[in-house]
């Protein structure tokens, strides 16, 4: 598989190997997000999600210096068009925020793993984006900031909803959210926001993420899709509810030939060749 899957004004999704897609943020000069950009971001991931030939995705920045500077503050100028009476204004702002949340959450609803590869600065909205990804790698030169408190609001696009569930240091997460201060890749690793710090910059961290995606794409796609679905369900539900959901899910999934193919591979000491979820496709 090679070539482009989706090419937009600010996003590019391309094949980089068998069943592996690469989505790049491409808005010069700093990948700031206006309404047009976050809408395209959500649509891009939703289109990638519809292609069952995609078994793993890497998200990175195409710009050499940074991942994203976060929100384009000019995007808030649309508020001027809303009603001035407080209650009606709030009722107009709310769906605007919900649509924004939905777009950034596209990586979470993507059925296959999404691996973020971060280099340079990742500010404000960038943390919202990372929190909705499944795995996060950071270059040694990367830096981070939950910046919203410094512009007069609580982060509302996903960071505060997810960070306590995906990281293991609540005290540090709270400190970073309350202060808006910059933190390094090593501190992001300590927080649990990152699972790996990669020496180098953009090229090195992207290659590491692509290597991981390639490894995942070689696994049973039925098992990988199920694992992501069950992990997300476990995050938001009780243990017993998740066990019952898992029983229902796997009652269907264990009927796939993938476990048999795995056992054949073990006996013959060869890599199993799993059937794809769909016929290979270069288009959506």
Automatic annotation (TrEMBL):
- What is its pathway? Lipid metabolism; fatty acid beta-oxidation
Q: Could you tell me one molecular function GO term of this UniProt entry? A: delta(3,5)-delta(2,4)-dienoyl-CoA isomerase activity
Species lineage: Eukaryota, Fungi, Dikarya, Basidiomycota, Agaricomycotina
Q: What is this protein called?
A: ClpP/crotonase
Has the keyword Ribosomal protein been applied to this entry? Answer: no
Secretion signal, residue range per the UniProt entry: none
| Cellular component, GO, one term | mitochondrion
What the record says about family reads: Belongs to the enoyl-CoA hydratase/isomerase family.
Q: Which CDD domains match?
A: crotonase-like
The organism's superkingdom is given as Eukaryota
One record GO biological process = fatty acid beta-oxidation
Q: Which UniProt keywords apply?
A: Fatty acid metabolism, Isomerase, Lipid metabolism
Gene3D superfamilies (alphabetical): 2-enoyl-CoA Hydratase, Chain A, domain 1 (3.90.226.10), Lyase 2-enoyl-coa Hydratase, Chain A, domain 2 (1.10.12.10)
């Amino acid at each position: 598989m090679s070539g482009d899957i989706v090419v937009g004004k600010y996003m590019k999704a391309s094949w980089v190997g068998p069943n592996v897609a690469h989505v790049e943020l491409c808005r010069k000069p700093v990948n700031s997000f206006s309404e047009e950009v976050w809408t395209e971001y959500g649509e891009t991931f939703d289109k990638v999600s519809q292609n069952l030939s995609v078994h793993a995705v890497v998200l990175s920045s195409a710009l050499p210096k940074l991942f994203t500077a976060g929100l384009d503050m000019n995007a808030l100028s649309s508020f001027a068009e809303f009603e001035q009476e407080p209650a009606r204004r709030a009722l107009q702002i709310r769906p605007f925020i919900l649509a924004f949340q939905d777009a950034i959450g596209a990586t979470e609803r993507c059925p296959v793993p999404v691996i973020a590869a971060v280099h340079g600065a990742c500010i404000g909205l960038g943390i919202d984006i990372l929190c909705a990804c499944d795995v996060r790698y950071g270059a040694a030169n990367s830096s981070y900031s939950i910046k919203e408190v410094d512009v007069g609001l609580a982060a509302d696009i996903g960071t505060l909803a997810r960070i306590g569930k995906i990281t293991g240091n609540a005290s540090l997460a709270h400190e970073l959210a309350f202060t808006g201060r910059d933190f390094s890749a090593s501190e992001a690793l300590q927080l649990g926001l990152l699972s790996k710090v990669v020496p180098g910059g953009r090229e090195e961290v992207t290659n590491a993420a692509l290597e991981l995606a390639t490894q995942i794409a070689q696994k049973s796609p039925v098992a990988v899709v199920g694992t992501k679905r069950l992990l997300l369900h476990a995050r938001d539900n009780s243990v017993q509810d998740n066990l019952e959901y898992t029983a229902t899910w796997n009652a269907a999934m264990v009927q796939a030939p993938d476990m048999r193919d795995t056992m054949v591979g073990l006996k013959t000491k060869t890599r199993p060749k799993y059937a794809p979820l769909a016929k290979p496709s270069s288009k959506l």
